[in-house]
């Protein structure tokens, strides 16, 4: 699975692997031939069903023997550097939709990520040597620059240290080899695993980029501890053993929780059934489903992966849940900075308080009963003061601190091409069509540099389609609220025959099953457009995202994290920021003043004008679309009511702009607001609102 918990090695390039021959045969490309049971080699490989020879740069290896001559052995292991889970942190938990509803887009379950294409075979050489040899001997096809960047990214996160050298269980080693097909550790794993595996059981705070193998870094030692405790626990105390929850992982988002659970289950594949139970508890699902999962089976729960809100709910209201944490041996806070950025600090502090009383696990041995202190692990891409404050609450004073990022490594976002586009509110929808027309390659228009600057340095030249180099496009467009995201997705899909593309949508107003399908469809598609609020800003690994467009106000950290969805693992990609005139001053002179934004003038497009006009006209004709537009109006009003200083409005100007927004999206009548909503937003007495009753 791409992303979290992955480990990898840079190998001799096998991007040009030769043909795979079903019953043996000969391969004449760089990758050689591959027989069903036969040889695999780097030059010409020949193999049959029971062995084979490889002549050239590598040795062939058959299913039942046979080795050839050459420089290095190929053992059919994958070398894949995870590209996931990114380093994006959505901003604060949103309280903007309709002015009162919590637009909580941060707890979303996504389906399991599919294994991306293998980048190269994992060799028996140190990865650095392999990369050096491949770069000097392999002739790359088109896309050379992208591949080189990808290799450089991979090399930056790899080591020569092998999982086989760790003192871990045979079952875990087997899963790493056979299920994950990893041999070498990433730098995060190499630096943290030896420390966490030590018998001193010390806590650990690790600063590590997302997508560099963090999940395995904390789950491998966690499983080893579960094995140790399970082997020594008093078997006569069956009720206690069955009730035990060994490990608790707190994740900021549903999709991250699902990824962690999936990786953990894979790592537990060859372990005994009594330590293989993994339960995911996240918002947006039926709470009773969690409770049934707790109660099913006779085995204890090895790992619970939960989002803060649902976890706190269970701790406070689910009978018998909190006592099951009494023997908790490991507590893990993943993406600690994001947990705090998203406003979960009160929940985290309350959870820590509830767990404080259960800080040790009792183990009965032949020498009597002794206590094993709970180990707490915090992993975070950044270490702001807020993370240090939580660390002081959650970790014991003598904790290990591991920094695998450094100070300079966090500035990679400045190398991604970033375009600033400015629009009037009236032409926002039209300009969205213009941008997507260009990025999908359905237009001959180009975006031209204005010579002016949004912020950062000025650049010149024409904008290029993100689909031009690869022949495909993968675009994510971020909006400020879930309601606006949903409305614009429906609006664009109402004219899909004219545009030639369908828009996928992911936000908190969609059911979990719908979000899962949309996520999977976007991940697996060659050409796809995803409209999202913040649920995809961090954590999910969508491969080959070519363009990220952010629409409206955002905070710097959120902007960077969203931008991190593209140009991942050394691949090509670019970002765009579309602002209304009233948002420009704050964003370019305060929030993103040091970002290398290139000011781009949006071109004229007769096609986009016609399609936008037709789409907006559909609002008055379609009841469902009209209702969606009304929800978007209320959410828009609530959102900007919380950002008046940033756009330099008073309440009166806010209402005037909101009413203009209603007209701009095709609403003939101004939507009404409930009296209590008006009161909560502090808009009582402001002229221009239509109040119900």
From TrEMBL:
Signal peptide bounds: none
E.C. designation(s): 3.6.4.13
Ranges of biased composition (kind: Gly residues): 24-36, 48-71
Bias-annotated ranges (Basic residues): 37-47
Domain Helicase ATP-binding: 195-401
Its biological purpose: RNA helicase.
The family this protein is said to belong to: Belongs to the DEAD box helicase family.
Official protein name in the record: ATP-dependent RNA helicase
Originating organism: Discostella pseudostelligera
